[in-house]
Amino acid sequence: MNITMIGTGYVGLVTGTCFAEFGHRVTCVDKISDKIDKLKNGVIPIYEPGLETMVAKNTREGRLDFTTELGASVRSAEAVFIAVGTPSSRRGDGYADLTYIYDASREIAPHLSGYTVIVDKSTVPVGTARQVSRIVSEVNPDADFDVASNPEFLREGAAITDFMRPDRVVIGVESERAEAVLRSIYQPLYLQETPIVKTGIETAELTKYAANAFLATKISFINEMALLCDAVGADVVALARGIGMDGRIGAKFLHPGPGYGGSCFPKDTLALMRIAQENGEHLRVVEAAIEANGAQKAMMIKKIRDVFGGSEAGKTIAVLGLTFKPETDDMRDSPSLTIVPSLVEKGAVIRAHDPQGMQEARQLLPASVVYTENSYEACREADAVIIMTEWNQYRALDLDRLGSLMRQKHFIDLRNVYQPELVREKGFTYTGVGRS
Fold it and tell me: What is the pLDDT of residues 416-429, one digit of tens each?
């Protein structure tokens, strides 16, 4: 099947590449010529394990192409996926900015030839597909098309696995023709017996927001339990295991830390809250999760400050991990963007390391932050080390070597990666989240 992917950001590039891996002929379109030139030369603009190899393979075998020319690719397509960004509104009110979605719709419309399914792959508020349909019809009244919703459920750092072996595929359609096209696209998943969940368009649009809001709420819940554990002397790691083994709850996303970040949870929870308010409803649980997440980051700053008796002024602090999670270079809404500037503002000297995020961090964090080649160099002459992101290479640090490099031996584990007893045996003070 001929597929056109509008947008070569995270969702568009991963989705288009995986469709090509399925055997479809995919053309990825982007307005940024420099990005397209780099993709044609095998330069991937994001870090996602396995993606570079898959792009190279499918480009070489002729199933994947990149272009800035939208017209020809749309004319030959049986399905056009819109995978452009939907950032939070510049007004700061939490609404999703749909400018790129609607612009793409206007640009697609004149080039439609024969029956085409236009698929919203971007995360969009309820009602967006209706607006896309209206725009296309206004621009090209003779177009033969349907609009469908096909939300993505990709975890950064595991996106290819998530796409190739998904828990489910959600398709929001209103016609049998559109359903048939989407089922044909996902036919390679048939042998894995992947469930195809067919819904109405509005339900599909809402499903992605609901899923992310639920997971964000689960994170905020365990973070609040961690604060309670700190207060009463309990161990949140054991608590999480105790409740996570209940099949009704499950162990995933019960890992306390400095708060959630990334491209989805912060943006999507706010957008869902605004969707509800526009429709006269209040999602009090979601609102509480958002509030708790902001408070969690503030509590981490206090936790760090308390290690130094209430003031970090003049202290050198090694920060290991800057991205919002491991196996990505994504800094969007990372807890480090809140915590590090606050420490710098109060007089701390920050020495930082991250396997993939330092280039982006240089644009976002205070200019005084020192970036190092490895974790041990970050800890040289440091008064404390903070595990901010749980990259695998930080999970088995040589604590003897670390201690020999540091001026003071304070170990602040904001991801609860280490056993407190082991760290203390090496002469460090240990500060975790919800465990003493």
Answer: 999 999 999 999 99
